Amino acid sequence: MVKIAIAGATSQLAREVIDKLVATQKHEIIALVRKDPSDLPTLPGLTWVRTTYEDKGELVKLLQGVHTVLCFITVHQDVENETQKRLIDASVEAGVKRYAPSEWSTGVKLASSTDVMPWYANKVGVAEYLEQLNKDKQVLEYCRFQVGPYMDSFAHPHRTPKHVRMISSQFDYERLQAIVVEGSLDTELTYTAVEDIANIVARAVDYEGTWPVIGGVSGDRLTVRELLRLAEVVRGKPFKIDWVKLEDLEAGELKSDNYPRIDLPSIPKDQVEAFSKMATRGVLIAACRGAWTVSDEWNRLLPDYKFTKVEDLLRGIWQ
């Protein structure tokens, strides 16, 4: 049993992880939130704690006795990474052993694609801050959990996770349509189911060895060609494909109207269309650069864990 602190504890993925940790009945959990805790559910072994994250001294007090900090704050809203840097510094001062920065997405090649996915740039900044912290000796054990896109997006509009709200992806298995970059059929992409992510994090908390700095969680790795083939296997029909050129995307053009609409609470309604097109362009370009291919460190450290495969998820939903 260890004491765990969850930062950004009301985020959707954090709630999935919290449910798994609570279910183990092993740990004492403090869940750090900005909102009024009275509006949040009562869970055994968990205490909701309100904080602004702006007072380092307060954070040091809150983290006393904490073994592991798992961070899920929204990085693009953290100006200059001030909040997460303060949380890291407070963790060190409080004697925290392990820290997981707010990554939970792309693989190690993200740094090459922040020009087209600027909303993820702060993930790289935090990774550099942690690397510098441990430059001369290990001050804080940390792991960059990298999981790729959520596999559950293939089930859209059906909801498979309890808390994470899905949007469709470039591969829309409901409408049987896809946006594909010309020449990218053999590009590999890594997808991991939300339940598997939460399960691996819960097991990583109990892991007795040293956490890997790069913590790839690879549910299933497939090429674009294989993802398109699965439409015929599972749905009995091929995708309608909108072929786009990489040079058009890099020039700021998305010559398709079938892009997913990213209608999230953090995006003003009048900006949904523009952001959705921009994000789709960025995701497609980054895929061609290998940013959505994730390593498998946790797969190798936890070899007995059986991950959900894309075909199994698709059959479970669409057949």
UniProtKB/TrEMBL annotation:
Keyword NADP attributed: yes
Keyword set includes rRNA processing: no
Keyword annotations from UniProtKB, A to Z: NADP, Oxidoreductase
TM regions (residue ranges): none
Organism in which the protein naturally occurs: Hapsidospora chrysogenum (strain ATCC 11550 / CBS 779.69 / DSM 880 / IAM 14645 / JCM 23072 / IMI 49137)
UniProt similarity note: Belongs to the NmrA-type oxidoreductase family. Isoflavone reductase subfamily.
Annotated protein name in UniProt: NmrA-like domain-containing protein
NmrA-like domain: residues covered: 3-250
Molecular functions per Gene Ontology: oxidoreductase activity
Pfam families: NmrA
Domain of life (superkingdom): Eukaryota
Cited InterPro entries: NAD(P)-bd_dom_sf (IPR036291), NmrA-like (IPR008030), NmrA/Isoflavone_reductase-like (IPR051609)
